Amino acid sequence: MDLNINGKRVPVQADPAMPLLWVLRDLLQMTGTKYGCGIGACGACTVRIDGQAVRSCMTPVASVGARAIQTIEGLGTAGKPHPLQAAWIAEQVPQCGYCQSGMLMAAAALLEKKPKPTDADIELAMTNICRCGTYQRVRAAIKRAAGMRA
């Protein structure tokens, strides 16, 4: 099967039932997407499919088809970071950093839908778990990035 990952067609030989997370990490060596809980609760594995935040540990690769997958590797670059990545650094969001790729992908999906999110919008969209507890910094970074996008 062929997948559309970060704007590129990528051929993959995988069991159709294999979770997208393992296709990305094990078959394609795209390790920016993290494994957390394996039951879709923590959000460390969040990627975007057609702009929507999706838990890749619970998404069979066959269900993706030709839809556009965006991983953290496709969000921005060191030379041209996404506004969220710049805001994450400015607000000093990461501590251990493990959950951050999933957080960034969920935040990117939020800002695509709601360019100027309210606190309530952020609360509803950001269901990712951060054991370091940087939720206030996440909120500040999302708001900063929303201002950068204006």
Structure write-up:
- The protein is α+β, with helices and mostly antiparallel strands and 150 residues long.
- It folds into 2 domains: 2-74, Beta-grasp domain (Ubiquitin-like (UB roll)); 83-149, Orthogonal Bundle (DNA polymerase, domain 1).
- It has helices spanning 20-27, 83-90, 100-113, 119-125, 135-149, and strands spanning 2-5, 8-11, 46-49, 52-55, 68-70.
- A hairpin with a 2-residue loop joins strand 3 and strand 4 (52-55).
Number of DSSP strand runs: 5
User: Structural class of the helices, strands and pairings?
Assistant: alpha+beta
β-strand percent reads 5-15%
Q: What is the H level of CATH, i.e. the homologous superfamily of the largest domain?
A: Beta-grasp domain
The total of helices stands at 5
Strand order of the largest sheet: 2-1-5-3-4
CATH class of the largest domain: Alpha Beta
CATH topology of the largest domain: Ubiquitin-like (UB roll)
Report the biggest beta sheet as strand number plus sense, adding barrel if it closes: 5 strands, mixed
- Rg to the nearest angstrom? 15 Å
Number of domains: 2
Helicity level: 25-40%
State the order of secondary-structure elements, H for helix, E for strand: EEHEEEHHHH
The outline comes out as globular
Distance between the termini: 39 Å
